[in-house]
Design brief:
With about 375 residues, the chain is α/β, with parallel strands linked by helices. The chain has two domains: about 190 residues, FAD/NAD(P)-binding domain (3-Layer(bba) Sandwich), CATH 3.50.50.60; about 160 residues, 3-Layer(bba) Sandwich (FAD/NAD(P)-binding domain). It is about 25% helix and about 20% strand. It has eight helices and 22 strands. The strands form seven sheets. The chain has a five-stranded parallel sheet with strand order 3-2-1-7-22, covered by helices on one side. A five-stranded parallel sheet has the order 8-19-9-10-15. Strands 4-5-6 form a three-stranded antiparallel sheet, with no helix packed on it. The longest helix has 19 residues.
Length: about 375
Amino acid sequence: MAAIVIGAGPAGLATSQQLGARGIRHVVLERGDAVGHTWANLYDSLTLHTGKHLSSLPGLRFPRAYPLFVPRLLFCDYLRRYAETFRLPVETGSAVTAVQRDDGVWRVSTARGDHTARAVVIATGIVANPQRPRFRGAESFRGRLTHSVEYRNPAPYVGRRVLVVGVGNSGAEIGSEIARAGGGGVVTIAVRSGANVVPRTVFGLPIQYLAYWVRKLPRPAQEAIVAGVRKLTELRRGPSVLPRPRHSPLDAIPVIGFHLVDAIRAGLIRVKPGLAEFTPEGARFADDSVEPFDDVILATGFAPALGPLGTAVRTDAKGFALRTARVTSVDQPNLYFVGHNYDATGGLYNIRVDSRLVARRIAQAG
């Protein structure tokens, strides 16, 4: 076996298609019972933030009938059709437990047996590894405490007092969806360091398309365009209702769209500073105020799922393996990563780029 790809989500499928196009013998190991397992188990209303023209995988565009922003169910259908179209060698029900290198060969262990190959591609993404910060007093909280990865729809939260901790895209979407479900409940969002909010479209085009071209410019020009978009937004919608963080939208993925902002302006969501600790009945915030809650949803993000590698690689401050030229491990030979580059041009666009890079490098390595 020339290569083993771990994960049959978008990153793993794109990599498999590119390896197959080069005639490289490989297998894709997927922990779930079907391709796109992670996407199939995310919240019902999830829709891509990125436009379909820059979000398809190599070799197969989205159908013309798909909307510009593809909803989760259609995207899952697309992933299944992608695997079938290219007859990708996916082995489902194969959760990887260890990845080790012995005598120049990679050994990947699963409950169903071991596989060996000269190259390994980690395409496990980040959603498989939700981050759950330890908050003081959490064990004493009498309400329901969950992570955003467990959220499916607002039905279980109607009429309840809900706190969403975190203001990334998941937290913004989940909080506003619960708030609009009605039922007399109260939704609060805890914002620790602020949020950059950008429109989903600019003059009818996805902001991702603008980001694609802007990133080719010098940094001062990029910042000038970002400032222009912010000014235009404030002129059309008024000043921000969320504190602005110190970092630029160029340095971290912003909140895309105004669903949260609109819900706050409509009085459907209250904003509090960062969560300091839990109390038996609710939470205490950074301003020392205390509020009661029935549910707390931790929208505290995700980190790369690198557990099976153990200590084989070093990571950066965000938990991503250290890499050269986007995809190649700095610590181990013939170890690659796809689906680990995130910026305003979109994770799926980066998967398209990186899957091609990895296939080319594996082919060149012989």
